[in-house]
């Protein structure tokens, strides 16, 4: 459920603003987010977890705009980070370090030091050498690092191979058979405190079953550890809950949380969730203008001013994202178009073979672009990254300006 819908005049609106007005004011391509949708999605998770002790650690990588993080921090959210940069962002946005979990396979010494100094909640360890390094760095600082082992439960999440993370062949986590040995090792180290266990099996999951299977495996491991005197305080189930890009029909957070909670059956465990996409995807759109309509030999192209550098999901994963007109009252001949961008790559497209009625100068809107949209944007083809606007009722706030061109080579130097 979101706050983007067509008005009687045919204009696509978000909360009390019209997208075409925002485009006129801020230019295109333009990311537009809805505060009410973000908050609704976060509360949906929080309420679904309900009476069980829990913490929602929003996955910063999905959308790391400072205003978005700040809104979530104000709701009391925790954060799942994967770099020192993301931790710095969370802090700059007013987030609480004591609610931060740190995932990622390649944490550097400097990142560990920074996170230890900030007293984050937990390091989600992904390998044996990472444990050794963390113990060493924490020792140098005279601290104890709270840890969880990210277990790779070898479960097929049934999602795109590039965003599946819980299979044996993936680089993530520690194979479940080796996790016990790693916990035993951790329990002997002076600068390590075992607090949790975690997993994250993939992104854009549309079925409950893989989540439940992973949870069963983790709970069995928790029981095994208990017999050895290793007690786990929190169970971090990762993120991964999918959203509707078209008609996937993933479980609602309420169903998802209810199913997970049922598995807990009176255990004394805090649940940690790391949702990214489920919070932000449908809270954002990308608005783009049609530069040209072009007739190819055997297809029509709608060439728009947004490209793979702005939104890479279609190019990278073949992801299908809904593309609709910003004004559906305009009478235009319907045709099937490939919606393509200005970047010099054949793979630069936002959608293929889409039935659309458009003319040059019209605005198109890519839906569900709030997650892994701007966050994955680049400057390829020396294109400035788009501006971002956060709508709050009738007010639109420019929360990131379009990059000035000169910023794109500001850090570069010619030879003396
Ligand atoms: C460790 C971890 N947690 C959480 C997430 C967030 O995933 P999603 O956006 O699918 O909820 C990811 C990304 O897939 C991740 O790698
Ligand atoms: N970037 C991916 C999701 C990756 C999740 C990160 N582990 C997407 O757009 O679908």
Describe the protein:
By secondary structure, the protein is α/β, with parallel strands linked by helices. It has two domains: 4-33 and 281-409, Lyase, Ornithine Decarboxylase, Chain A, domain 1 (Beta Barrel); 35-277, Alanine racemase (TIM Barrel, Alpha-Beta Barrel). Helix content is 28%, strand content 25%. It has helices spanning 19-26, 35-49, 66-75, 84-92, 109-117, 128-140, 176-188, 209-227, 253-264, 277-280, 313-317; strands spanning 4-6, 12-14, 17-18, 30-34, 54-59, 78-81, 100-102, 122-125, 145-152, 174-175, 192-198, 234-236, 270-273, 284-295, 300-304, 323-325, 334-340, 349-357, 363-366, 387-392, 395-400. The strands form three sheets. Strands 4, 14, 15, 16, 17, 18, 19, 20 and 21 form a nine-stranded mixed beta sheet that branches. Strands 5-6-7-8-9-11-12-13 form an eight-stranded parallel β-barrel, surrounded by four helices. The protein has a three-stranded antiparallel beta sheet with strand order 1-2-3. α4 (84-92) links the parallel β6 (78-81) and β7. α7 (176-188) packs across α8 (209-227). The N and C termini lie far apart (57 Å). Pyridoxal-5'-phosphate is lined by residues 59, 62, 80, 103, 165, 200, 203, 238-241, 274-278, 371.
Task: Give a quick rundown of the structure.
This protein is α/β, with parallel strands linked by helices. It has helices at residues 19-26, 35-49, 66-75, 84-92, 109-117, 128-140, 176-188, 209-227, 253-264, 277-280, 313-317, and strands at residues 4-6, 12-14, 17-18, 30-34, 54-59, 78-81, 100-102, 122-125, 145-152, 174-175, 192-198, 234-236, 270-273, 284-295, 300-304, 323-325, 334-340, 349-357, 363-366, 387-392, 395-400. It folds into two domains: 4-33 and 281-409, Lyase, Ornithine Decarboxylase, Chain A, domain 1 (Beta Barrel), CATH 2.40.37.10; 35-277, Alanine racemase (TIM Barrel).
């Amino acid at each position: 459920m979101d706050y983007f819908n067509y008005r009687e005049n045919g204009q696509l609106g978000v909360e009390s603003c019209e997208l075409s007005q925002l485009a006129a004011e801020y230019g295109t391509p333009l990311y537009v987010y809805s505060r009410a949708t973000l908050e609704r999605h976060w509360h949906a998770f929080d309420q679904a977890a309900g009476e069980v002790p829990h913490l929602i650690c929003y996955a910063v990588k999905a959308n790391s705009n400072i205003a978005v993080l700040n809104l979530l921090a104000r709701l009391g959210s925790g954060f799942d980070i994967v770099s020192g940069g993301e931790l710095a962002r969370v802090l700059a946005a007013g987030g609480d370090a004591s609610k931060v979990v740190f995932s990622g396979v390649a944490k550097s010494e400097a990142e560990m030091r920074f996170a230890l100094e900030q007293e984050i909640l937990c390091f989600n360890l992904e390998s044996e050498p990472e444990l050794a390094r963390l113990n060493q760095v924490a020792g140098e600082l005279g601290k104890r690092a709270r840890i969880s082992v990210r277990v790779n439960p070898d479960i097929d999440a049934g999602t795109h191979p590039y965003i599946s993370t819980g299979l044996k062949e993936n680089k993530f986590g520690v194979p479940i058979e080796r996790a016990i040995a790693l916990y035993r090792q951790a329990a002997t180290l002076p600068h390590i405190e075992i607090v949790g266990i975690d997993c994250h099996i993939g992104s854009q999951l549309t079925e409950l079953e893989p989540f439940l299977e992973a949870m069963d495996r983790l709970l069995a491991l928790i029981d095994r550890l208990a017999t050895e005197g290793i007690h786990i305080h929190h169970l971090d189930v990762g993120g991964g809950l999918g959203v509707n890009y078209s008609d996937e029909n993933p479980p609602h957070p309420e169903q998802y949380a209810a199913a997970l909670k049922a598995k807990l059956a009176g255990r004394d465990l805090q649940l940690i969730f790391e949702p990214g996409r489920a919070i932000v995807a449908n809270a954002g759109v990308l608005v783009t203008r049609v530069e040209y309509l072009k007739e190819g030999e055997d297809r029509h192209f709608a060439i728009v001013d947004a490209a793979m550098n702005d939104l890479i999901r279609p190019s990278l994963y073949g992801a299908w994202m809904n593309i609709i007109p910003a004004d559906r009252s305009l009478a235009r001949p319907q045709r099937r178009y490939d919606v393509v961008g200005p970047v010099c790559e054949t793979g630069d497209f936002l959608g293929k073979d889409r039935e659309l009625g458009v003319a040059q100068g019209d605005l198109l809107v890519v839906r569900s672009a709030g997650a892994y949209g701007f966050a994955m944007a680049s400057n390829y083809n020396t294109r400035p990254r788009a501006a971002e606007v956060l709508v709050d009722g009738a007010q639109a706030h420019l929360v990131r300006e379009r990059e000035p061109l000169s910023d794109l080579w500001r850090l570069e130097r010619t030879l003396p």
